[in-house]
Structure formats: C-alpha cells, structure tokens
Amino acid sequence: MPLNSVNTNVGAMVALQSLNRTSDELAATQKRISTGYRVADARDDGAAFAVAERIRGDMAATNSANQQLGGVKGLLDVTQTALQNVSTTLNKLKEIVVKLADGTITDEQRTQYQAQAKQLTNNIRTFIEDASYNGLNILDDASATAVKVITNGSGKYYSFSSYSALTQIYDQVSTVDGWDQASASAALTAAGAVGTAITRTLTQLNNFGSYANYVDSQITYNKAILDAQESGLGALIDADMAKESARLQALQIRQQLGTQALGIANQAPQSLLSLFRS
C-alpha cells in the first residue's frame, strides 16, 4: 500500500481507533460516576453482578425477617406489661386476702374487703384480655399453642409457647368475693390460690422476659449481619469516586488530543495537492 494515498489514510484510521477507544473508556467512567457503581449491571462484570444480586437478595430477606421480629418484640413487650400489672395487682390482692383471713373482722368489713378483692380480680382479667398486639394475644390462649417466629432470611424459626393466663392465674382468685376466713387463710399458703397465682405470674414474667431477650439479641445480630453484607457488597461493586474523577479528567484530555490528532491526520492528503501544482 502506498504511503502517499488519497484512498487510504492510515494515520486517520489509527487516530480514529484511538479516539473510539478513548470514547468507550470515557463512557464507562461517566457511567461509574453517575451511578456510583463499578458494576452497575451484568455488562460491566457478569460474575460480580451475579454475586451482588445474590447478596442483595440475602439482605432483603434478612431485613424482612428483622421487620417481623420487630412486630414480635412489640407483642412480647405488651405481654410483659400486662403480666407486670397482673403481678402488681396480685400483691394488692394478697394484702386484702390477709385481712379476709383475720377472724376478728366484722361481717360488714368482710363484705367490704370482698368487694375490693373482686374489683382487683376484675382488673386482672382485663389486663389479660387486653394484652393484644396486632390482633394477637399470647397471654389469653386457652390452647397454649406454640408460636413460631422467623428469625432470619434463611427461614429459621424460634418457637415459644403462649399462655392461658385466664385459666392458670385469673381462675385461681376469681371467687375471692366468696372467701370466708378459712378460705382466705388457705389461699395465702404457697400451694394456695393466691400463692399459686403469684408463682405462675412470676414464672411467666421470667419466661416471656427470656423470649424478649432472645428476640432483642436476634434483631441486633441481624443488623450486624446486614452491616457486614452491605460492606462486602460495597467492596464488590462500588466505584472509587476519587479514582474515577482523576480518570475522567485524563480521558477528557486524551479525547481532546485524539480529536486534534484525527484532524491532523485528515489533513495529510491535502499535502499531495502540491505535487500537481504547476
């Protein structure tokens, strides 16, 4: 191929190829800067994008599980609050039952104490029946069924039992307005009605407290996992903005120089005209 040809301009071809490569690199750099990602889609890096999508799915599942755990936390908090009120009321009831167990009180006083005691037991029933959260009451469950709580994005469960507090606690003291001196005295023993109701309430406070602690710990753990996943995802696909900024400036200069070089190369055949001037 002749060096001096008007049909084939090798210099322009080389300059154009270089300019095209620079334009492609500039477009890729601008994409990274505009999206903030080194790998924004499968065209950038198919393998890295596939890994990133899997991690995003895991993060979404873990976040969803944590949202559900937040609901369970609310349910357990309501349950513990109700049990705490039941416990406080039982202590007040015990004070009155002590008076009912006294053989020196008058019939009128007994009637008054029985009425006070009955009001307290009504309060206990109300606390139990009102311990609902999002339409669910695990303190007033006659079947004492198992509650399955999803704990993470992998579908693992944590199970605990609901409780029939009306039967196990309220029914123990529901007839207090009819207790005479002997019944009241018997109710105060460790195995008596009041003693049993208090023991069962404290036991469930401990149980539901343990359930709540587990849920709190799992929520904290899931958040730590999400932070680690997000950090790993960033290391995999995020763009180094400082590096991309420097690269953008360099490519813009290369593009300008490439444009100039192409212009010079395109002018080269013009010099051949001088050979044909007379």
TrEMBL record:
The keyword Ligase does not apply. GO terms for cellular component: bacterial-type flagellum; extracellular region. It is found in: Secreted; Bacterial flagellum. Keywords: Bacterial flagellum, Cell projection, Cilium, Flagellum, Secreted. Residues 6-142 form the Flagellin N-terminal domain. It holds the Pfam family Flagellin_N. Gene3D superfamilies: f41 fragment of flagellin, N-terminal domain (1.20.1330.10), Flagellar export chaperone, C-terminal domain (6.10.10.10). GO terms for molecular function: structural molecule activity. The keyword Secreted applies. InterPro entries: Flagellin, Flagellin_C, Flagellin_C_sub2, Flagellin_N. Residues 193-276 form the Flagellin C-terminal domain. Belongs to the bacterial flagellin family. Flagellin is the subunit protein which polymerizes to form the filaments of bacterial flagella. This is Flagellin. It comes from Roseicella aerolata.
